UniProtKB/TrEMBL annotation:
InterPro entries: Glyco_hydro/deAcase_b/a-brl, Polysacch_Deacetylase. It comes from Polaribacter sejongensis. The keyword Hydrolase applies. Signal peptide: none annotated. This is Polysaccharide deacetylase family protein. SUPFAM superfamilies: Glycoside hydrolase/deacetylase. Its EC number is 3.-.-.-. The keyword Ribosomal protein does not apply. It is an enzyme of class 3 (hydrolase). One of its GO terms (biological process) is carbohydrate metabolic process.
């Protein structure tokens, strides 16, 4: 990921290359950009995790994509529009945030862009909070408040530290995995922040009703696991459970015809064994490795559009295409799985 971001910093040089030439050289005619969140001014959810685009920046991205690619729907993708006379883009959003309903959907409806939204079945209706958002809220609190001596001592005990330094705690918090999320709950007690109150007051996730309203407007939905674990950190048995059960719940709850699934975080470390075992379920799956080819015909790699700095759609898409062309020359453009 770092190399790609380094490449994006040279966009002044490479953005003079015509997009059509890069698409021709790469032989790619469909791209899969994806986002999570569009910042409309209020952002206490992801501000310490990555830098989301503002409404204006997002609209610019969409207009760039629209100018050079045709927006593809699930139906288009199913019909495998490989004989597309134009280039296509298949847009998706992960994590099922209410931000999509309030900010993103009106923009996409106006621009006539199709989008699929991947939901975590345990989080719909604000039932639970993703552990990374707990990290984000904790960092916000630590940075914005003066902590008491008792709180500092309790935090030092929790992290087994001798010295207290706010930024060190924030770095440690960023490294917390889903298996250590009890640390976040303990910390919330020390800081006296309530995640359940945050869920009730802020309602960060889409409600079931909002999903149905969006479905009526033409948006589609898929699953994004139950609990958003990092698949490389859980067993194949749990990977299957998280995948199959979340797809089933979302299909049933929202009366969906197709089975779509995007891997939480990424599909890094997901082996052929997993894909062989879900074959019979006929689930179309999506990763987030950027422009890369897959041997599995029902699995597509998507292009992340959010980083720690803001890059325009042109910079990201052209950078991904250049990176892909280089990888192709080195024969490293295909995902290798055990
Ligand atoms: Zn996610």
């Amino acid at each position: 990921m770092h190399f790609k971001e380094d490449l994006f910093k040279f966009s002044i040089i490479y953005n003079i290359i015509p997009l059509k030439l890069l698409l021709k050289l790469s032989k790619k005619n469909i791209i899969f950009p994806f986002y999570h969140f569009v910042n409309d001014g209020e952002n206490s959810l992801v501000n310490n995790l990555y830098k989301p685009k503002t409404k204006e920046q997002f609209i610019k991205d969409i207009q760039y994509l629209k100018k050079h690619f045709t927006s593809l729907s699930v139906k288009d993708l199913k019909q495998e529009k490989s004989n597309l006379d134009n280039f296509g883009f298949f847009l998706s959003f992960d994590d099922g945030l209410a931000n999509f309903y309030k900010i993103v959907a009106p923009i996409l409806l106006k621009e006539k862009i199709f989008c699929i939204n991947f939901l975590n079945s345990n989080f719909i209706d604000n039932k639970q909070l993703f552990y990374r958002y707990k990290v984000n809220l904790s960092i916000n609190y630590i940075r914005e408040n003066t902590l008491s001596i008792d709180q500092i001592e309790a935090i030092n005990d929790l992290f087994d530290l001798d010295f207290f330094n706010k930024e060190d705690i924030c770095t440690l918090l960023r490294k917390v995995s889903i298996n250590e999320s009890n640390i976040l709950d303990k910390l919330s007690k020390i800081l006296k922040i309530s995640f359940s109150e945050f869920l009730i007051n802020k309602k960060p996730y889409l409600s079931g009703l909002q999903v149905l309203k969006l479905k009526e407007k033409g948006f589609d939905f898929g699953a994004h696991s139950k609990n958003h674990p990092r698949y490389s950190q859980i067993s194949v048995k749990d990977q299957l459970l998280e995948t199959v059960e979340s797809v089933e719940v979302i299909k049933t709850q929202f009366n969906l015809d197709d089975s779509f699934f995007s891997f939480p975080f990424s599909d890094d470390g997901v082996k052929n064994d997993f894909f062989n075992k879900i074959k019979s379920k006929k689930i179309t799956t999506f990763g987030s490795a950027g422009l890369k080819d897959e041997d599995i015909s029902s699995h597509f790699q998507r292009i992340p559009m959010e980083y720690n700095s803001i890059y325009s759609a042109e910079t990201i898409i052209k950078g991904e295409l250049i990176f892909y062309i280089i990888k192709k020359i080195l024969n490293k453009h295909k995902i290798q799985r055990d």
